[in-house]
Design a protein that fits this description.
three-stranded antiparallel beta sheet, 17 helices, 56% helix, mainly alpha, binds acetyl coenzyme *A
Length: 371
């Protein structure tokens, strides 16, 4: 009850995760159809279609997004050292909060652009490197990598990140998207919605999981230690990051999509094959242990498990993984916020009061209330 399981809180045309079949549909297209075949810009155009009066099509969107990255870069110059050392998600949140709010397409583009530009800039500033200016003609995924690396990525790196961004672009009413819709329903604006969503994404039970997945791989160290290490972790009552999902009772389809992106990098010689073997050993050990622990509750691999390896292979530091997730998901948050504004009412559920009844009037003195 207190997790709102199975409560339908919105009608949406945007995406549908089928937890029994293990499928994800984004605006009438299966994830398999989109991932690896469409760019992030294509999927953004698909998600936003009809939700703005002036929604750009897939041919017009890349240039508009490129311009928006240039606009967003102006905010980086004002970055100060005080918060740049904090958690990258917090730094990203500060920069996003500096941009004007609104409900229009320009605000939406600025938010998508800003999430990528600020992520790259924050990562460079944390290493005492100057931020790299965007290239408005580049693909969004390529430009994020270029701004972060300070040089052009390889085609394999761009393809892998693009596939990842498409894979995580939208996913029904997950916690961050719900937060976005709640804020949008008050008509606070798209920036407010995206910042609320980012704050929800930050948690380790949602988009904060992949960093801890790598901590787990480091802790296991060697494939033959996987079972005993994971067993000890579960015995301490801890959760295995990268496993389990509220909706999926079978394997999360995004896990395989992200693993396919990783395999593209392996073919290009850009992933340490031993790291992948270790991850596969951890996965193979974890699944039966979880089945033993919760026989009535299928706990399968979720998207975050292979995300951790992919983002590590793309050289992102683990503390920035949630920011990269946000680079993909921000397009979905905005689509949901616009859908909510267009057709939804203020979201205002009720709570059931289970506290004590009020004291009788004669005993409610200020002293007693304060005590
Ligand atoms: N490891 C160990 N036990 C688990 C795990 C796990 N990964 N996931 C769930 N469980 C157990 C819980 O301890 C709980 O046991 P209990 O009934 O004895 O208390 C039971 O399974 C049900 O757990 P809930 O938290 O009620 O299930 P929920 O549907 O809320 O869980 C969640 C979903 C939060 C993702 C959970 O599986 C989890 O914590 N996984 C690890 C974190 C993670 O990988 N998050 C990323 C999710 S994907 C994403 O958000 C993009």
């Amino acid at each position: 009850m207190n997790g709102l399981d199975d409560v339908i809180a919105a009608d949406t045309v945007l995406s549908d995760a089928d937890g029994q079949a293990g499928t994800l549909v984004i605006r009438g297209h299966s994830l398999d159809e989109l991932a690896g075949r469409s760019t992030y810009e294509d999927v953004l155009a698909l998600l936003w279609d009809g939700l703005f009066e002036d929604a750009p099509d897939r041919l017009a969107l890349p240039a508009l997004l490129g311009e928006a990255r240039m606009d967003a870069y102006a905010y980086v110059v004002r970055a100060d050292a005080q918060w740049i050392r904090r958690d990258p998600v917090e730094a990203l949140r500060v920069l996003l909060a500096r941009m004007e709010d609104g409900e229009d397409l320009a605000t939406a583009l600025r938010l998508v652009a800003g999430t990528a530009v600020f992520t790259a800039a924050v990562l460079r500033l944390r290493r005492s490197l100057d931020p790299t200016a965007p290239d408005p003609r580049a693909r969004h995924s390529a430009d994020l990598l270029r701004m972060f690396y300070g040089e052009s990525p390889t085609p394999a790196q761009t393809a892998a990140l693009d596939r990842y961004l498409v894979t995580v672009s939208d996913h029904g009413l997950n916690a961050s998207t719900f937060a976005a819709r709640v804020v949008a329903s008050t008509r606070a604006g798209l920036a407010s919605s995206a910042i609320a969503a980012l704050s929800a994404l930050k948690g380790p039970l949602h988009g904060g999981a992949p960093g801890p997945v790598l901590d787990c791989l480091d802790g296991v160290g060697r494939p033959e230690r996987a079972r005993s290490w994971l067993q000890d972790k579960l015995a301490r009552g801890e959760r295995l990051m990268g496993f389990g999902h509220r909706i999926y009772r079978v394997r999360d389809p995004r896990a395989d999509s992200v693993k396919a992106a990783l395999q593209g990098l392996i073919r290009g010689g850009q992933v340490d094959a031993a790291r992948l073997r270790l991850a596969e050993a951890v996965e193979q050990a974890a699944l039966p242990l979880l089945a033993l622990k919760k026989p009535d509750r299928p706990l399968q691999t979720n998207v975050e498990f292979y995300t951790a390896l992919l983002l590590e292979a793309l050289k992102f530091p683990r503390e920035a993984f949630t920011c990269v997730f946000a680079v993909g998901r921000v397009g979905g948050w905005i689509a949901h916020a616009r859908e909510q504004i267009a057709g939804g009412r203020l979201i205002r559920p009720r709570s059931r009061y289970v506290g004590p009844p009020p004291s009788p009037p004669h005993s409610a003195t200020p002293e007693r209330i304060a005590g």
